Amino acid sequence: MASRKEGTGSSATSSSSTTGTAGKGKGKGGPGDSAVKQVQIDGLVVLKIIKHYQEEGQVTEVVQGVLLGLVVEDWLEITNCFPFPQHTEDDADFDEAQYQMEMMRSLRHVNIDHLHVGWYQSTYYGSFVTQALLDSQFSYQHAIEESAILIYDPIKTAQGSLSLKANRLTPKLMEVCKEKDFSPEALKKANITFEYMFEEVPIVIKNSHLINVLMWELEKKSAVADKHELLSLSSSNHLGKNLQLLMDRVDEMSPDIVKYNTYMRNTSKQQQQKHQYQQRRQQENTQRQSREGPLLPEEDLSKLFKPPQPPARMDSLLIAGQINTYCQNIKEFTAQNLGKLFMAQALQEYNN
Amino acid sequence: MSRFFTTGSDSESESSLSGEELVTKPVGGNYGKQPLLLSEDEEDTKRVVRSAKDKRFEELTNLIRTIRNAMKIRDVTKCLEEFELLGKAYGKAKSIVDKEGVPRFYIRILADLEDYLNELWEDKEGKKKMNKNNAKALSTLRQKIRKYNRDFESHITSYKQNPEQSADEDAEKNEEDSEGSSDEDEDEDGVSAATFLKKKSDMGDFLPEVVPESLGEKEKTQTARVGRGIIYRAPTTDEDKKAAEKKREDKAKKKHDRKSKRLDEEEEDNEGGEWERVRGGVPLVKEKPKMFAKGTEITHAVVIKKLNEILQARGKKGTDRAAQIELLQLLVQIAAENNLGEGVIVKIKFNIIASLYDYNPNLATYMKPEMWGKCLDCINELMDILFANPNIFVGENILEESENLHNADQPLRVRGCILTLVERMDEEFTKIMQNTDPHSQEYVEHLKDEAQVCAIIERVQRYLEEKGTTEEVCRIYLLRILHTYYKFDYKAHQRQLTPPEGSSKSEQDQAENEGEDSAVLMERLCKYIYAKDRTDRIRTCAILCHIYHHALHSRWYQARDLMLMSHLQDNIQHADPPVQILYNRTMVQLGICAFRQGLTKDAHNALLDIQSSGRAKELLGQGLLLRSLQERNQEQEKVERRRQVPFHLHINLELLECVYLVSAMLLEIPYMAAHESDARRRMISKQFHHQLRVGERQPLLGPPESMREHVVAASKAMKMGDWKTCHSFIINEKMNGKVWDLFPEADKVRTMLVRKIQEESLRTYLFTYSSVYDSISMETLSDMFELDLPTVHSIISKMIINEELMASLDQPTQTVVMHRTEPTAQQNLALQLAEKLGSLVENNERVFDHKQGTYGGYFRDQKDGYRKNEGYMRRGGYRQQQSQTAY
């Protein structure tokens, strides 16, 4: 349910250019029961994010910043943003909260919306489903219910299609995170799987009419070649990278599963032992009863059979979520590329 | 030591003779038989003569003697031990004692011991200095003897009142002593000596004449034995001075005996004359303890006594070791001047060398150069003497008592082991080399001594080959091997190079100068050791040295076979560190040898262990690592320092590393190219990869400076198939200076290397770029890599056979046609992913199985389905039960 703004300037024709809101939510966890149904982003914010990455981001390093805006009914409007400064070793005592407050106060002075509505982050080939992201988004959403995170994929953008996604944690995941209990049972009870961890909110990019006019003008002036990045047929690099990353996650997944497996086995084994023990006690007791002897005292079974420490399942959830993202990425990418290839073939045949 | 007092018995018995009557003893007639008895079966006679009394008393006297000795060296612990034994022995002898009365000598020792102990007890200072054991023993012994002596109180008091007991007792005791002492040694002439002595005491005036004849042959041994028997007597009752005087007398007399025997003109001397001379000598000696008095006649006895005197000071605190050496040297001079014979000189020389070794108080320090020089000279002189006098027997198993220092008629026997001396010398040499700065002129100076050391070892070897046992020969051979194996035989090498028909006269000279090739020498020595040695260590060392020597001289196959045959690789970890170091050195040399032969793989394998640890320096014993300095304490460090190999034996570490890296490069680069996309490829050489990574991390790549940078740069060039650049990085002025010129046949190695680089570059090129070719002409390849066509052909064929290259050869056009069946990068990745997912699914299924309660999964045969299901049901039920009980 990627609500994506494809082709930055060109298609931003109207004030509410919403392209690609096609995919509906992947199920029950959709935006339906969430506080935010739609995210509207100001063009300025998009440009500021892109600029921020270009200026400071390196290939694998991410850049982050704060989103500002306001909430209108179930719409989240993001009207401005500012970046977090890049960390360096020599200012370790830098106070981030202080900086944010300072920044927001300054912005308020120039009459800019100063409601903190979330944050944004760049990503490397869509690898953003991490513990750190989860934690900070949780704290955001805990404090301001409507806040969202914008994920910006610079690599895809460079290939010609702006990639910006708004993500929120599902209420279920919020519950789980509040409980801080990631044991298999708790997750099972919460009925949460990797698919329902994040909900994606459709986004709309809105520009003022004046800007739209400018865009029209610019488009007419721009050379033809600039528009055709989109049609590049090369796929191997991108695909290879994605595969590599996917493989890394799969590698991480395997031991996790093994760990879980061992846990399961241990539990069942212990259950068996416990059961045997109980049976034996019962037998003994019946025997004693028949002999009218005193019964065996009750013993604390949980002390005798300490259940094995259940492994935290959050990691595997996250990994699975990440794998899911990669798969989506690859799927989209290959679909597009196939289309392009067919097109190229047709063109070639036509030329011949 | 006992020899001091050797003739004490004689003189004292004489003194007692002169005054008093004596117990009658075998008559003179017996005397004539003496020589006969000597040569004949002694065992019988022994049995005949020994009576129960003799036996018991002999036992007692022996014990007493040891106690006396222990007293002299203030070894109270020993005293205590012996005293207890003495008590037991006395108990055994009780029946005899009852018959005969308590023997006087027994009382004497008891009294003396008590006095001695009391004296020690009073001496607070001395007690403080005593070590714990001794102090403890002292108190115990003191109590014991007090208690014990209560039984003998009357005897002791009477003895103390009249220490100069009536002579008859003395005499009796004397007999017993001499008898006992002579019997006690299981020597040939036990009885004869005893009887002889008795006779001596009988004969009184005859003595002087008797001595030369009867003692003629066995004089030394006899006197020694007799002396032992008598010792206890010397310092006993009389106050010190008297005792000392007596000793002098004894000595003098003995001296006289010897002299009289040796020098004919003295033979006629009678007793009186003898006495006079001795008396004259005594006071002088006392006044001037260091040297012989003027006018003292220098005889064997004097010299030996002096020698013993000096040696006694050895090892004691406060002894001036330098002065001791001086004294000993003076003694040698005196001995030489007085023409005392080679035996004595040899004996003293042995002692000089020993004291030279002793000069340094602890093991870590090394000899001073002048000491070292002296030591070498001394050993050389000793060897001169030994070679000049083949009749001198030297051995460590010769007892002091059985030494024969000056009896020219018999072979001279001297205690001492030339082999040990030489081994010690070798150790000292190593120590000196270890402690000299290897980059100084001093080191070179010291190294010059190596020739001398080798010469000495060679001489000793020759000597031992004649006289030594096989074990000794093995040891000296090993020493020789250790001084040979690491030296490259340039002359033999030269000879090998020049064809034999061109052998000019000069070459013959050379051959003469040189003796045998070191290879032949090594072969001979090692084979002897292989055949004869019984200790494993010597053989192991010899094998390792042999391999090293082979490897050094590029006899790769011999070296390798020997290494494999010895099976040393399996059990070397049980060997002691020095042997392990030798093993490491050998492996390294083996690797370098393989490299010279162009066997990169073997070279790499041999060097892998040493290099991969990153502690090559330590493993080869060529230096300590600073890193581990904190981990070991001072003691360990000292031990490790002692294990270091002297600098002139070092293997160049840079050469070693370079050889390793280059062979790793030749192996790894084509391998990397071939398995570029294979995720499961392993590294052949971690260290090489590490170097590559270090090279990659450089932000700015300048021209290579160090050897490693050169290799890394070359590897990069090779990765691209650019052999010319690779070549220029590996072989250039800098690398020549640093590495390649260190090889004996540098040019050969270089040509080998170039060829290897060409070949491996070709392979790398084909691996890397085969995907962009449909076909490629072999001629082009041969031009590109400057290899001839057949070589290119063979390399490509090999690659095709090994399925490294998916291609076929098109013979008529001489081209390689690529099949293009290799998967692309993406395909490869996809394949890997599929594999990983497979295992993931498998794991997941197992989890699923748990949930289902069935083991085995749902992909199992349908046939089993029913049973499984049953199991599942049962299990499920069981589970339910469980959960019920659990909650």
From TrEMBL, chain A:
Residues 1-34, 266-309 are annotated as: Disordered. Residues 8-21, 266-288 have a biased composition (Low complexity). Residues 39-173 form the MPN domain. GO terms for molecular function: metal-dependent deubiquitinase activity; translation initiation factor activity. CDD domains: MPN_eIF3h (cd08065). The modification Phosphoserine is found at residue 183. It holds the Pfam family JAB. SMART domains: JAB_MPN. Belongs to the eIF-3 subunit H family. Component of the eukaryotic translation initiation factor 3 (eIF-3) complex, which is composed of 13 subunits: EIF3A, EIF3B, EIF3C, EIF3D, EIF3E, EIF3F, EIF3G, EIF3H, EIF3I, EIF3J, EIF3K, EIF3L and EIF3M. The eIF-3 complex appears to include 3 stable modules: module A is composed of EIF3A, EIF3B, EIF3G and EIF3I; module B is composed of EIF3F, EIF3H, and EIF3M; and module C is composed of EIF3C, EIF3D, EIF3E, EIF3K and EIF3L. EIF3C of module C binds EIF3B of module A and EIF3H of module B, thereby linking the three modules. EIF3J is a labile subunit that binds to the eIF-3 complex via EIF3B. This is Eukaryotic translation initiation factor 3 subunit H. The gene is EIF3H.
Automatic annotation (TrEMBL), chain B:
InterPro entries: EIF3C, EIF3C_N_dom, EIF3CL_C, PCI_dom, WH-like_DNA-bd_sf, WH_DNA-bd_sf. Keywords: Cytoplasm, Initiation factor, Phosphoprotein, Protein biosynthesis. Component of the eukaryotic translation initiation factor 3 (eIF-3) complex, which is composed of 13 subunits: EIF3A, EIF3B, EIF3C, EIF3D, EIF3E, EIF3F, EIF3G, EIF3H, EIF3I, EIF3J, EIF3K, EIF3L and EIF3M. The eIF-3 complex appears to include 3 stable modules: module A is composed of EIF3A, EIF3B, EIF3G and EIF3I; module B is composed of EIF3F, EIF3H, and EIF3M; and module C is composed of EIF3C, EIF3D, EIF3E, EIF3K and EIF3L. EIF3C of module C binds EIF3B of module A and EIF3H of module B, thereby linking the three modules. EIF3J is a labile subunit that binds to the eIF-3 complex via EIF3B. Phosphorylated. Phosphorylation is enhanced upon serum stimulation. PANTHER family: EUKARYOTIC TRANSLATION INITATION FACTOR 3, SUBUNIT 8 EIF3S8 -RELATED, EUKARYOTIC TRANSLATION INITIATION FACTOR 3 SUBUNIT C-RELATED. This is Eukaryotic translation initiation factor 3 subunit C. It comes from Cebus imitator. Residues 647-823 form the PCI domain. Belongs to the eIF-3 subunit C family.
